[in-house]
Design goal:
Length: 447
Amino acid sequence: MNENRPAPPRPSVLGRGSYSEVLRVGEILRKETVGGILLVAAAAVAIIWANSPASDSYFALRDFKVGYEPWHLELSLGAWAADGLLAIFFFLVGLELKREFVAGDLRQLSKSIVPITAAAGGVVVPAVIYTVINLTSPETLRGWAIPTATDIAFAVAVLAIIGSHLPSALRIFLLTLAVVDDLLAISIIALFYSSDIEVSPLLFALIPLAAYTFLAQKYRRFFGTNPLAPWVILLPLGMVVWALVHASGIHATVAGVLLGFAVPVLRSQASGGPGAGPGLAEIFEHRFRPISAGVAVPIFAFFSAGVAVGGWDGLMSALTDPVALGIIVALVAGKPIGIMGITWLLTKVTRASLDKSLKWIDVFGVSLLAGIGFTVSLLVAELSFGPSSDHDDHAKVAILTASVIAALLAAVVLSTRNRYYRVAEAEEKVDANDDGIPDVYQHDQRP
């Protein structure tokens, strides 16, 4: 009888993923942890310096201009950090996104739908909250995108400080959230924060971009295993693309994402056989991630986080600005509402259940952690209101305040689960048959 048949198991969401994905994400987060600590240190130095008796020297350094004006490249050091160094960061975002959707777990719709829609919820809900709070102030509405991004480096630095042993499923979820909303953020920058666009430089940029893409796809055929070839040939082409995009009026970090998308992520065996060596994406990620996490992002944080608060009265004035209120509420409350709300809604719509290795309190803790919106939020604030404007300064104070609040709340929630996380981490390391793959990943595999 059909009535006696057991009901089919409900599908689960936010599972562990493949072991190769776990190893890769673990390596990325270890590098980002170091970068996050450097980022926090650089921001702290900037804030202290900007509010010290020597504050004039900080702002003079930030505003000091270098570069070649005929090429529209005479920029302040702060602008070089935002337009130039952050392009390296977004280049890695492009690489990471392409790798996930071409060769990673996210190429499977069943695994990608939850983190992608959750990231979208974590962008839309904060933007709506900020807009509602600033609805009566057209001057400040332009900052609606400030609270939409998650700073993965800052987030994993918090995890390192509190000693949280997040299970692999949550680490992958957090990284995916951050990478996807970085893509959404750069799309917002390209669409809403580009002005006075000049078509000619943009069209000229297509020429070196096409050459870069062709050579990147065929680099092993042309250059073999020569380790210098990508740097001697591709790096200058990438710099030309960046300069032309910058001259066009589109924010130059967009060039970083485009260049990342152009790099092949699958290793070609067409020449050299199985021992041909790592693919170009692996080479670039290995070389550029330490530069991004350890140099580019901390330097950007140093030049962007410095804001003269003006004592207690100045702090209170900043925090009562609708800009600041919108950012704080959007990051601290909007992010977890958007991320956890969409995740919960998807489980109900699809009749799925949370993976048995997790509880909803775990998703809530990661959603709070995603409210740390530092690097990209600082960039969007400058694009929204202009460097050193009152609203920009108030936005910076709010971003810093919200990030600290989100970090503290996440630390409290995740710390209560640390004992369970340690048990789960130990379970994920058990390899009874000594085949190099922990048993839980073999048991979790589906035919």
